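Usage

Read records sequentially. Each one opens with the input sequence:
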Amino acid sequence: MIIEYIEEKLQKVLNDLNYDLQAKIIVSNRKELCDYQFDGCFAYAKIARKSPYEISEEIVSKFLKIYKDEEDFSKVEAVKPGFINFTLSNKFINERLKDMFYKEKFNIHMPEKKKIIIDYGGPNIAKPLHVGHLRSAIVGESIKRILKYFGHDVIGDVHLGDYGLQIGQVIYGLQKENIAKENITIEILDEIYPKMSALCKEDEQVKERCAEITKELQDGNAEYQEYFKIIREVSGKDILKIYEYLDVHFDLWYGESDAYPYIDKVTEELNKKNLLTTSNGAKIVEVSKPEDELEIPPLIYQKSNGAYLYGTTDLGTIYERIEDFHPDNMIYITDMRQSLHFKQLFRVCEKLGYTDTITFEHLGFGTVNGSDGKPFKTRAGSAPKLDSLFKETKNAFLTSNPKNDNMTEEDLDILVNAIIKFADLQNNREKDYIFDLNKFSEVVGKTGPYILYTYLRIASILEKETETCELEEKDIYNKEDRDLRIKLLDLENTLKYSYSTRLPSVLANYLYDLCVNMNAFYEKNHINNLEDKKKKESWLFVLNLGNKVIKEMLALLSIKIPKKM
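and closes with the structure output:
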């Protein structure tokens, strides 16, 4: 990585000067001045009892003496009030671009391989997926793909919510309305669930009965198990259809119900370590620590009526995963509002000794909001179902871009995915964001269609050329040319940061900036009628590499490319 390469050189200089400084290089936000920058002289000035500029001059003087015979930089200079600016040489830039072009995965160094289970999706069965399910699927799929790109053995688990109170409510409603098991459809489930959920809020006796049904189901009641299997099958097919449309794929379709055979084993482990205590008839595990600034309540393991909860099945699932897969890491992607639950869960895992060999991560995300800043709703006041959102998005795109009404349905579906996914992934997953359907459907601006249009535009140019593409050793021809090459060199730093922070937004924003550079480059440098053969080959090389980067990074964001638009 270029930043690490410069840091290694700079650190040698700092050590030779006996400066107790860490060589921390940053990408310059003033490309007209330099490519990379060091600002550590300011913090060190008081310790050294010198001005920051004086320190920067000493460092640069030593740097130029040590590396005087190298051709990596066209300029290294001290700049008042105390910055050190690094500008790469054309030769260095072009050599690195060749490595990116010809070597696997752009010549990016990969970490040690690990086995990782990533838990995302997490829909409850018995009700259709709505806009609230989008972020877990989109963010989770992208993080999974990034982890795989870095060489890890990654297992994706949808982890269905299939044994909670909603199942008891649906079974109660199906029996109440005399719906035969063989007649259960997704439309009936969609009607029954909200009706019974509302009834439980109004009638305490109904709520208690639904809770009893849930408990009896968990205990193995044969009739309720029959209902459960049909509900899971019908609902599962509908969930799978939506995820396939989104190009979101899971290796495991486990649910809470699959954890039940492992609960007794977890209970045994908890009892061996004397971790289970009783409070008001319920079994709990204390997880608070003396250093906690805010009180962390205990994890409720079993209710006083004997029913198990979300935390119990999560522990059972963890036990199952350890037994079946022996993972190095488990990652959970859910709404930020579940942060406390995962803090409790991971502390129980710590007490059980699981964290000795496994790293646990909870990656929370914010909500998808409407223009009013509140969770995105339809005009009827409910969260829109995903199949309805897909249709609405398609209509918005065609309304904004009427010239695309001759696109195939397959390409339109790809555009719908790009609109929805890029709208989400360009935002830090931890933050809420406003979903503006009309804005995100435009072919200009920071949108999925803009990224795809850029790729197809450049691909069209490249298809017309029969010239070979090869990079000159030292030539870079103008500002737009250099800006694009430097942006391409930023890929490794971007990818590694996106990987280490688990933030697809880092990658999405890089991709947009790259496309801006690609378009600026092409507007300035017309290739088709260029007579200078060396220049033409060089520019074709850069455009080929740029489109190669766009294509692979779109794949990591789970965005396909249409044939045309």
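Summary fields computed downstream for this record:
- Residues 156 and 251 are 5 Å apart (CA to CA).
- The chain has four domains: 2-88, 118-161+250-369, 165-245, 386-556.
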